[in-house]
Amino acid sequence: MRADTEPFSLYIHIPYCVSKCPYCDFNSHVVAEIPEKSYTAALIAELGRYAGLDDWRGRPIQSIFFGGGTPSTFHPESIGKILERVAAQWPLVSECEITLEANPGTVDRANFFGYRACGVNRISIGVQSFQPRLLKFLGRVHSADEAKEALAVVRESGFDNFNLDLIYANPSQTLQELAADLETALSFQSPHLSAYNLTIEEGTPFHQEYRRGSIQLLSEEDEIEMADLIEQRLRQAGLERYEISNYARPGFHSRHNVNYWTDGDYLGLGAGAHSYQKNRTDGSYGRRWWNEKAPNRYIQAVSWNRQAVAETEQPDIRKAAGDFMFSGLRLTDGISLDAFAARFGQNPVTFYPQMPDWISEGYMEKNDDRLRLTRRGLMVANSIFVHFV
Ligand code: SF4
Asked: Which of 21, 176, 283, 350 has the highest CB neighbour number within 10 Å of its CB?
């Protein structure tokens, strides 16, 4: 397929939050007043510039994702204005998936009807837990009741397609608490659920507490037991695991995220947003670039140049092959060996001589064209993934 007709995904970063959660290392900022107008204007200027470039002009958009930060801090008028400009510049595939991330602490009933009316057709809601003590530990701004109320509003405002995020393996969390969270989540008939184990990211308040010893993570066995419980209970309820941390009913996979994991092109707009273009005419193995992270500097850069690129990287074949493996093996369906060979001209074993051992030790399996992590491999995925980065 020629690069200029291949569909791509559009990511739009809204970097503002009501408060900063102590485990979070995303590009999110708490400010006295969110500059919604000037940030929206910057996004519109930036997308207008990309729409005029040969690499992106006229290509169909298959998914749009408003991520953050907390995109639900923006009014439907701003989200609608951005979507209008996107639709004026690019064709959208029929049933284009348009997701907006929301925090239960910022759910306003009228706004949710407004998001639906302006074209958003999927909500991803960061519940994390329904247990008051765990919400407190995670520093969330919302209560368990607010999370339930938010989910009810999501459904009432016409979103049949939505995701609910949970965090598990919190220190001192019990299996019973996790089971209760799963039951509450399932009672809302969520067609998609993401369950992330708590990780301690450098530079966060949790990292400092962890180093001081005031946070102790669960043992690996406890974590695996929780992961097993999640997989079993969700499968019983009709949600299949299709990625390390993601579960969906048939037809409700996140198309936007699947595009990341299957080496698809994406364009990122907004502060700190990353972009990727696979097919290049210069013989390289794609190009990655990312924007200025600080929201104010992003707005200023776009007002001067209609772009805010901070850095660009052209991966060599080894780096590109590693990215392909790292992303694709997150999916329970794994990677296509034919697709790998078509892109890199070789079998992955050329780059990763340990692969036969991973297969014989039961961490990976090969079935015709597919190479995937086994259940055992998924449990220790990070120790395999270090070979790809
Ligand atoms: S709401 Fe989300 S993006 Fe904002 S600080 Fe918390 S975890 Fe980070």
From this structure: 21
